[in-house]
Design a protein that fits this description.
Elements: E1 4-10, H1 19-43, H2 48-71, H3 77-82, E2 84-88, H4 96-111, H5 113-125, H6 132-137, E3 139-143, E4 150-161, E5 164-171
Antiparallel strand pairs: 1-4, 2-3, 4-5
Length: 178
């Protein structure tokens, strides 16, 4: 069953960010977020109100950094160092809700080792090197200077995994060699 949902873009295989490049970006961004938390906690007094305010400030700044920066040309430090950018399945900047969903899915994977491993290692078997959260959010992580190699219809493919049946959107390529 392939229902079309408009037209999307695809990139050359080497333009999609692979496992190690993404791991580098994730580590760098995690370090930035943790250092920000430590700096905020050390800058205030030890009162409960001060710690709570520092934590709330850290959450807001982390959300801005990991969602807003990631979806714009600014990008996060990790994405800049790894030479990557995030785009939606149509080739544009993804909506903030999609990027927030990706972040929440990644955080859930951190609490559930099975979900986290499936999400992260999905890259190794996917033609577009997407994680499971990328598939669900309809996003690609590509090299910073990558340009679309072509356009095609967005169709839903069926995946069977761990007693689940998933209908995930993909862009149908006009040529399998790209």
């Amino acid at each position: 069953m392939n229902l079309s949902r408009g037209e999307g873009v695809y990139y050359r295989r080497q333009d999609y960010a692979g496992l190690w490049r993404r791991l580098l970006a994730a580590i760098v961004d995690a370090i930035v977020v943790v250092v920000a938390l430590i700096a905020l906690l050390l800058s205030g007094t030890a009162s409960a109100a001060s710690v709570l305010l520092a934590f709330i400030t850290w959450l807001a700044l982390s959300l801005l950094y990991l969602v807003v920066c990631k979806r714009t040309r600014v990008r996060t430090l990790g994405y800049r160092l790894a030479g990557m950018r995030l785009v939606d399945i149509r080739g544009g900047a993804p909506h903030s809700l999609r990027v927030t969903f990706r972040l929440l899915f990644a955080l859930m994977g951190g609490y559930s080792s099975t979900l986290g491993l499936i999400d992260f290692f999905w890259i190794t078997g996917d033609d577009d090197r997407q994680t499971l959260r990328d598939k669900l959010a309809q996003t690609y992580v590509i090299r910073a200077g990558a340009q679309p190699a072509g356009r095609g219809p967005i169709v839903y493919e069926v995946y069977h995994m761990l007693a689940w049946t998933l209908y995930l959107p993909e862009v149908r390529r006009t040529s399998r060699r790209v």
